[in-house]
Write a structure and sequence with these properties.
Elements lengths: L1 E3 L10 E10 L15 E5 L3 E13 L2 E12 L2 E5 L9 E11 L7 E11 L11 E7 L45 H22 L1
Antiparallel strand pairs: 1-2, 2-7, 3-6, 3-8, 4-5, 4-7, 8-9
Length: 205
């Protein structure tokens, strides 16, 4: 058997190719048959988009090996009925190619790449015939994302007040009362002035 990649772990959606040969020899079996005619060869995988291509090569003494296509199947399972590979006078090689991709998983876990087993007429697997190969499908653990602090914006409500016009009063200048000269006083002063002027003129003469 050959598996590419040759070992796990592998990431989801990684292409996987499995090729193997199952050899049947009547001279090595207890019943003298390559495979019991009433049993079934069951092949299973957990790969996604699985495609199986199976060919049969018959090996007979003194005759060149004869190869024929036996099965082309899509899905997680391929089965070969026993009557198609049950012989007593020749050896049989089943050549199998399996193509698929690693399944998507939420966390790392083991998945069956290939499992081969013989099933009896009551649909029970014969435990001594089971062969299985598993790979870990690896999913990295997400790195916690630290969120930035949230800035809470507080909206201040502004109460609009009504503008009331303000009248600025200009101080009124206080008028000072200045009493006008009394008429008699004025007449007296004029008379005195006239007498003084007359006296000066007499002296000069």
């Amino acid at each position: 058997m050959s598996i590419n990649p040759s070992q796990g772990p592998i990431s989801p959606q990684t292409p996987v190719t499995v090729t193997y040969t199952v050899h049947f020899d009547p001279w090595l079996s207890t019943d003298g048959l390559t495979f019991p005619s009433l049993n079934t060869l069951d092949m299973y995988t957990e790969l996604e988009n699985a495609k199986w291509v199976v060919s049969k090569t018959e090996i007979v003494e003194d005759i060149p090996p004869m190869t024929s296509q036996l099965l082309v199947n899509q899905g997680i399972r391929a089965r070969i009925d026993g009557w198609g590979i049950s012989y007593s006078d020749r050896q049989i090689d089943l050549n199998v190619q399996l193509l698929g991709v690693a399944p998507n998983v939420n966390q790392s876990q083991d998945k069956t790449i290939i499992r081969i087993q013989e099933i009896d007429p009551s649909a029970q697997p014969i435990q001594t015939s089971v062969f299985s190969k598993k790979y870990q499908i690896y999913v990295p653990t997400p790195t916690p994302v630290t969120s930035e602090p949230t800035i809470t914006q507080t909206i201040l409500e502004t109460t609009q007040t009504q503008n009331i016009p303000t009248t600025i009063e200009t101080p009124t200048r206080k008028q000072t009362y200045s009493p006008e000269p009394q008429p008699l006083l004025v007449i007296g002063l004029l008379s005195a002035s006239a007498i003084i002027i007359a006296m000066k003129r007499n002296k000069q003469e």
